[in-house]
Amino acid sequence: MTLSRKQLLAMGAGAGAFASVGILRWPGEAAQFTYKLANDQTPTHPMNVLTAEAVKRIQDASGGQLEVKVFPSSVLGSDPQMLAQLRSGALELVQMGNNILGSVIPSAALLSMPFAFKGPQQYQAAANGPLGAYIGTAAAKIGLRKFETSFYGGFFEVQARAKAINVPADLKGLKIRVPPGPIDVGTFKAFEAAPTVISLAEVYTSLQTHLIDAIEVPLPIVRNFKFYEQVKYCSLTHHSGLSYILLANADAFGRLPKNLQEIVDREFNAAAADATKSMASQEISVEKELTTDGVTFNRPALEPFSEVIRTSGLYRQFREQYDPKGWEMLEKTTGKLA
After folding, report:
1. What is the pLDDT of residue 29?
2. What is the pTM of this model?
């Protein structure tokens, strides 16, 4: 059955309860700990599918002592709003795109470095390796607790309403939506495009009203949010990757007994590993689905695009602007970039 966009949004609005069905309660009327987990993705995204399974396992393994309610589809606010709630303690857990997290943890933005990664395996090696550990240390300094394994969010491609992107010049002047992350803005400014920062929940209407003419998201997001109803060309630029980093408010996590902390760590890290495999698989399979939905795909030569980034001086700029030490951690995986 194909769901309409209206049905998908309705699912998202009511999804706070979907993760708490069938809870095995600890003795008493309610769980001792009830935590909220929020993100900006649809319930059908691999991250949310596997997260829903993880919270059920957590409830079972804790004997109902810990209940985690999942709020997808930005129902608790935009990404910056959710991040602020996490830091204040109003939210206990958030799955946040590294690009947006970069506004408070600069080294997290480095995982969005354009044309730095050769594929999902290398990307995850950075997200879960030296750079990921470094991001965790930085998170602790601002009262956040990073989980060890991140949720792979896919590689960004360019989707446009009116034309395919075959060469860098095709991006010139293009009104393209980018997420609220400075590296995304800087990347498209290097191509002389017109990047416009819009939250994911507002993208569909922004396309519908012609506020923007193009977007850059991983392929499963085009399907999940039904963006294919508005964009008809998809250029496989693979220009940057996305990592959903699971963060806890450090004080909230610290309130959990050690045995519950171990359960949460185990189950969410397992969910992240499984979701990563599912996402990588969907990046391949979704192209066929979107073609059926009327999207035309093209595979431009990537070297001219990466050459624009190299010669623009963006690598040197980002290294100094964000975190030279974090850049060193990045290059442990990618090799020398600048």
Report:
1. 57
2. 0.90
